[in-house]
Amino acid sequence: MIRPASAAVILDLATVWPDGNFHTKNAKRFAEEVGKLTAGEVKITVQSGGSLGFKGPEQLRAVRDGLVPIADVLNIQQIGDEPMLGTESIPFLVSSDKELRILHKYIRPEFEAIAAKYKQKVLYMVPWPTQYLHLKVKATTLDGLKGVKIRVPDKNAQDMLAAIGMAPVLIPWGETIPALASGAVAGVSTSAVSGVDGKFWEFLKYIYPTNHTWSCQMVNINIDVWKKLSPAHQKGIEELAKKLEPEFWAASLKADTDSLKRLKEGGMEVVDIPPAMMKEFQAKTAPLLDAFLKRVPASEKPVRSFLAEVKRSS
Prior knowledge:
By secondary structure, this protein is an alpha/beta fold. It is 43% helix and 18% strand.
C-alpha cells in the first residue's frame, strides 16, 4: 500500500523472501539509500517473507493492479501471464553470470517492455546464483533419479526434470517447506541460498551442482506511483538503482559461496556428478530450447543474438 505522511511518501516493497535472504538485504539497502537520496521524502518499507499476502506468481499483477506500489518479482514465476519472462530458465542456455550479462543486453529491453505493459517500471534486476538439485537420494546415473518427486519453481524446470524421468511438482516457495516436511516431495530445484532459507539439511542430504537454469528478481514500481514522484526524485532513484545493481549482482555470487558452505556445515554433501551423467542430462533437455522458442516466438531474436555472441548454436 501507499501510506502518505506529512512530509514523505511511504511505499511498501513486497517480497516473499525472508530477512536473511540476500535479495531482501539488497532491497533494504536500496530503500535506505533512497531515503538518504530524497532526504526522507520518499521512504520505502520492505515487507519481507510474504507478509503482505502475495505469493511469488502474483507479484507482477499485484503491482499492475496497485495492490502494492513496489514488489520484488521473480521473473520465471510470471510465465502464466508473460511466457517470455521465462527465457533465462531455458535449460543450460546460460552457463555463468558473465553469460547472463550478455543475454541481458538482448532480453532486458523485452522484460522492460513487458513491465510497461503491466503498468510498472523496472528499477533494478538481480540474478539468483547458480541452481542445484537438493535431494534425499544419491545417484551416479539419471536412472537413479527416475520417479523422484521434486519441487520446481517454474514450467521450464518442470519440463526439464520431466525430460530426465523425475516427477517435478510446481510449488511456490511459501509452500515448499511444508511439502518437504509432509513428504509430498523428496527434493527441491533451487539455489543454495534458498536451501539455507529453508534449512534443507533438516530434510535432504545431497546437493547436485547442475547449474541448469538462471532467473532474476525484478524490483518493479507501479507506474502511477512512479509518476507521482518529482522529476528530481525519479532521476535520482534511477541513477541510484543503476549504481547499486552491480553491487547487488556481486552479493548474489557471494551468497552462493556462503550458502553452499552453510549447507555443508548442516550435514549436506555436494555430489561430484559423473561427466557421463551430466552429458546425458544436457542431451535429454536440449530439445527444450527449440520447444521454448516455438512456444514463445518473441524470444527467438534475443536468444539467437545471445547464442551468436557467445559462439554457440544451442
